[in-house]
Amino acid sequence: MTVQIKYKNNLLNKNTANLVYFADDKFNISSLKKQISSTEFSFISDLIKTKDIKREILTFDISSKRKIVLVSLKKNITSSDAENLGASFFDKFKDLKQNDFGINSDTISNRSKNILAYFLHGLKLKSYLFDKYKTKKDKKNMQITVTGKNKPNLKDQIKFKAIEDGTFFTRDLVSEPGNILHPDEYAKRLNLLRKDGLKIDILDEKKLKKLGMNTLLGVGQGSIRGSYLVTMEWNGLKDKSKPLAFVGKGVCFDTGGISLKPAKFMEDMTYDMAGSAVVVGLMKSLALRKAKVNAVGVVGLVENMPGGNAQRPGDIVKSYSGKTVEILNTDAEGRLVLADALTYTEEKFKPKFIVDLATLTGAIIVSLGSEYAGLFSNNDKLSNQLIKAGENVEEKVWRMPLNKNFDKLIDSKNADMQNINYVGGAGSTTAAQFLQRFILNKTPWAHLDIAGMAFSKYGGALNSGGATGYGVRLLNKLIEDNYE
Ligand code: BES
Ligand code: MN
Ligand code: ZN
Questions:
Q1: 126, 335, 396, 437: which is the annotated catalytic residue?
Q2: Choosing from 51, 66, 113, 261, which is the catalytic residue?
Q3: How many whole angstroms from 124 Cα to the centroid of ligand 1?
Q4: Measured between alpha carbons, how far is 67 from 84 in angstroms, rounded to an integer?
């Protein structure tokens, strides 16, 4: 299913099957009188008495092929209300045969003008479908033509399209199975982002070895595929000011390694690269909308496999930071990938802040389910900005504790630290506490554990199930509201 949105100045094509008008929360349609034909008006005024006006979307069949749709906008409608309304519009009409709509923006009051941009954004986000591997494709296509003087302005059209394209790119990457999107293929796809204006640098195994990124390399050493660290730079300010940095866990498939996971639901671990995919989608969005900001995305791409050359429990490796880690469980691999990526990012780019994203722990799903990502941070300002941005776009985060008292749980007898704690609980916090040890210069840093957010079996307000793209809109909002 695809949705095409076009903006036109002229009156609607007479053949447009369905006409969409907006009304207030009581479906008071008197203001419509000026906008639509008198036959249409008397038709609606009569039939509306038979409708349940508690609903937000009413449809009036003019013929078997033609409808008038009335969408009510409540008084203090918020941007996310409007997005959700657009999403329900999509759900309501997605199976309709005559699937083209003309939206008359003149029926929206000037005051709630930008509401239409959010409505269309929600509609578009909800329409995403990953059917690449279905031999019978859903060829349906919803055509939407928006006319009238209250159309979203050109700047908003470009901005929302950029966020949609970024989010869809993230969803595509997360949806791909492990046999297709292995680290070699992933690195190739990232290289193509040069065409959007991103500066791409791909560090392969040889370079990583030279740099001493052994905790990252250790995770990938059981795989026949390569391991990579890829950096993506967006220089929207065209100067040398410090960038914002985003770091993502890109475990293309997580079998657990020698500490093998049980068979049931192991297939879910195809989305264990979601953190990296959010970073990629965000960078793409920033480039597409030419954001006035300097930003860098850094992703560690590996496949965690058992095998003759795989890392063993008990192995001790030296990280890029110089700190040594005893691997007690090869399934706690995400933190090993991020450890080197974080130190490298801090040292190489000297960023204003670092936000990392990872499907890091099952424990965060126990704590927060699929409503909030876990936020762990050394900085209150950055935390509050993330919390606020999250509430705004309905991609919520909940702050969880970091504290030096947890450190004893990951101190090791044989090395500087161990990669898991078998006692003491607090699995998501000890993972975050582990990551914090690799921020060497007190850079403001926030870690988002998105294990419960990246994939939705049943779908949510703005996604129809599968990869959610959670995080792209959150971080875009963080940047838009605070750093542009
Ligand atoms: N990728 C998993 C975490 C995960 C679990 C993500 C469920 C999404 C859904 C991670 O690499 C992992 O295996 N974590 C272990 C850590 C443990 C060995 C300390 C976990 O959560 O069980
Ligand atoms: Mn794991
Ligand atoms: Zn993992």
A1: 335
A2: 261
A3: 32
A4: 22
Which residue's CA is the closest to the ligand 1 atom numbered 7? 362
User: What 3-state class would DSSP assign to 444?
Assistant: coil
* Residues measured by CB to lie within 5 Å of ligand 2, the ion: 254, 331, 333
Strand 397-399 and strand 373-377: pairing?
A: parallel
Q: Is the pLDDT reported for residue 12 higher than 70? A: no
Single-letter amino acid, residue 129: L
Catalytic-residue membership of 171:
no
- Determine the Cα angle at 190 with ends 6 and 272, to 5°: 100
Chain length of the chain: 484
Q: Is 27 left (phi over 0), alpha (psi -120 to 50) or beta?
A: left
Q: Which CATH class is domain 160-482?
A: alpha beta
Nearest CA to ligand 1 atom 8: 451
Delimit the CATH 3.40.220.10 region(s) of the chain.
2-152
Quick one: fold of 2-152? Leucine Aminopeptidase, subunit E; domain 1 (3.40.220)
The ligand with the least distance to the CA atom of 271 is 1
Catalytic: 225?
Answer: no
Structure tokens at 98: 């005559």
Q: Tell whether the model's pLDDT for residue 13 goes beyond 70.
A: no
Mean local confidence (pLDDT), 404-428: 97
CA distance 330 to 313: 6
CA–centroid distance, 89 to ligand 2, in Å, is 39
Ligand 1 pocket residue status of 322, Cβ below 6 Å: no
**CA separation for the pair 145, 12 (Å, rounded):** 8
- Mean pLDDT score, 136-149: 89
Q: Is the CB of 176 under 6 A from ligand 1?
A: no
How far does Cα 67 stand from its chain's mean position?
35
Per-residue pLDDT tens for 237-262?
999 999 999 999 999 999 999 999 99
How far apart are the CA of 414 and the centre of ligand 3, in A?
Answer: 24
DSSP-assigned beta bridge partners for residue 83: none
CB of 233 shorter than 6 A to ligand 1 = no
Distance between CA atoms of 420 and 427, rounded to whole angstroms?
Answer: 8
197: exposed, middle or buried (C-beta count within 10 Å: 0-12, 13-18, 19+)?
Answer: middle
